[in-house]
Write a structure and sequence with these properties.
With 254 residues, this protein is of the alpha+beta class. The chain contains 8 helices and 11 strands. Strands 1, 2, 3, 4, 5, 6, 7, 8, 9, 10 and 11 form an 11-stranded mixed sheet that branches. The longest helix has 17 residues. It is globular. The N and C termini lie far apart (36 Å). The mean pLDDT is 91.
């Protein structure tokens, strides 16, 4: 990939270039070891963010913290942050060795994903509201003796409530998501951390599957995992038909 500096917000901003393998149809396994690793990861996230109430676990990790009899390998971490607390949370985690970055450029070739992340200020992020991948990037991952962790790159979704009282994020491709609702809490020995509900994730996974092309090649490679996750959720919520009603309703207000 040839780097294009014109894609940066500011050519003086620091950049990080990371390459990693993107595996299609990763083997989905469900075992006790995975469940233990999931809960260890949740505890590390809660501690990292000081159990802050404005932070919610989202993505696949949120699903398997709420379903006791199912799990799978989780290789990444997604965090949902309330818009009003975003700058405070960013200051908190930058003190712990992370940088706030936006995805400026990427390439997926021969199974290798190369990403150019641009370090940005949280105030810039709030003003511009970029509808691109935004992450907290751990600065020491480039050290030779660094041990790889799902917490190396934390994907961020900043949420707000729109005029129709639906929850949205700065990633406009997925808006609106769900009518405003209370968060769920995961009870941990040192304190609690919030997570989005299974209903929330059922809607998100349905959107990713139904609008596959809109989210790019990376989402296509995650098709089997998204199908598996959605099927697990629908089997573990009381009213699966409610998801269909939410999806119909969001179409009328989109």
């Amino acid at each position: 990939m040839e780097f294009n500096p014109n894609l940066l917000w500011n050519k003086e901003n620091k950049i990080y270039i990371i390459s990693y393998k993107k595996v299609e149809n990763t083997k989905i396994s469900s075992n006790k070891k995975n469940k233990k690793e999931i809960m260890k990861l949740v505890e590390r996230i809660a501690d990292l963010f000081n159990f802050h109430k404005a932070v919610r676990i989202t993505g696949s990790l949120s699903i398997y913290t709420q379903i006791p009899n199912k799990s799978r390998l989780i290789s990444d971490v997604d965090i949902n942050i309330n818009e009003l607390n975003f700058i405070h949370i960013t200051k908190l985690i930058t003190k712990k060795g992370y940088s706030l970055c936006r995805l400026a450029q990427r390439e997926l070739k021969d199974g290798i994903r190369t990403c150019v992340f641009e370090e940005i200020k949280p105030s810039e992020f709030i003003i511009r509201k970029p509808s691109v991948r935004t992450v907290f990037l751990k600065k020491n991952i480039f050290k030779q003796n660094h041990k790889k962790s799902p917490l190396d790159i934390i994907d961020i979704f900043v949420n707000y409530i729109d005029k129709n009282n639906w929850e949205c994020t700065y990633d406009h491709r997925i808006n609106p998501i769900i009518p405003e609702e209370f968060e769920k809490e995961i009870i941990l020995p040192k304190g609690n951390i919030r997570t989005v509900s299974l209903k929330y994730m059922a809607v998100v996974k349905s959107i990713l599957l139904k609008n596959e092309d809109l989210f790019g090649i990376g989402n296509k490679l995650d098709r089997e995992k998204n199908k598996y996750d959605l099927n697990v959720i629908l089997k573990n919520i009381k009213n699966a038909e409610e998801i269909k009603e939410i999806l119909k309703k969001r179409k009328t207000i989109k």
